[in-house]
Amino acid sequence: MLPSRLLPWTPASQKPVELPAACAMDPKISNGARLQHEHITDLLVFGFLQNCCNSNFHKELKALGHDLPVPAYPREDYDDELQTDGNRCSHIVLEREETESENQEEIIQNIARQLAQIGDRMDSRIPPRVVNYLAMEFMNVDLSEEDRKDCLSAALEEVMKTYPKDMEKEKTMLMLTMLLAKKVADHTPSLLRGVFHTTVNFINQNLLTYVRNLVRNEMD
């Protein structure tokens, strides 16, 4: 149970947010030659934060961006390989993989931009008490990552009550999860890195299949 001294609102239920069946993890889906699952979510959450208006964490976000993995295949490495063994076939394969990754990155950035625009419109609907609660919880160094995800889940359950009914539930959950991260980072910029990683972990655990379907539908 969440401590009442930190949470002046009462969640509708103490159970985790009920996730639609479409969000369930699908173990049959493989990574392939494109971006790794975790990196897809990294890019999505980072892109969302990058495209949000009126944020107070530009410096922290820039520092975080330097630490994120980049799915790039340096072209100079290709040239060196061709000069030593003349294997042009491997060059073509790697170049194709690079193109696919770049296309996928661009699609993820577009999705992040669209969700950030929706988030900007809904920003004022997030109750300050929810943001204050999350910020205080993330400042607690004794909380485990699971505890942080539980706090995020409880906050998401509360703000889901405000979501527009004409938007699909999974999309709303994804957008609001990232919007909560943005609001916490706005409240206390030093928490950006921690809330970013918890948000990525939460999405990977609960909404990854939906995220991958979003990207795949845009690529088809």
From TrEMBL:
Q: InterPro entries, alphabetically?
A: Bcl-2-like_sf, BID
- Compartments (UniProt record): Cytoplasm; Mitochondrion outer membrane
Q: Name one GO cellular component term.
A: mitochondrial outer membrane
Q: Name one GO biological process term.
A: positive regulation of intrinsic apoptotic signaling pathway
Keywords (alphabetical) are:
Apoptosis, Cytoplasm, Membrane, Mitochondrion, Mitochondrion outer membrane
Q: Which Pfam families match?
A: BID
**Has keyword Membrane?**
yes
UniProt keyword DNA-binding present:
no
What does the protein in this record do? Induces caspases and apoptosis. Counters the protective effect of BCL2.
> By its UniProt entry, which PANTHER family does this protein fall under?
BH3-INTERACTING DOMAIN DEATH AGONIST
- Quote the entry's note on domains: Intact BH3 motif is required by BIK, BID, BAK, BAD and BAX for their pro-apoptotic activity and for their interaction with anti-apoptotic members of the Bcl-2 family.
Oligomeric form and interacting partners? Forms heterodimers either with the pro-apoptotic protein BAX or the anti-apoptotic protein BCL2. Interacts with PLEKHN1.
Name-wise, this protein is: BH3-interacting domain death agonist
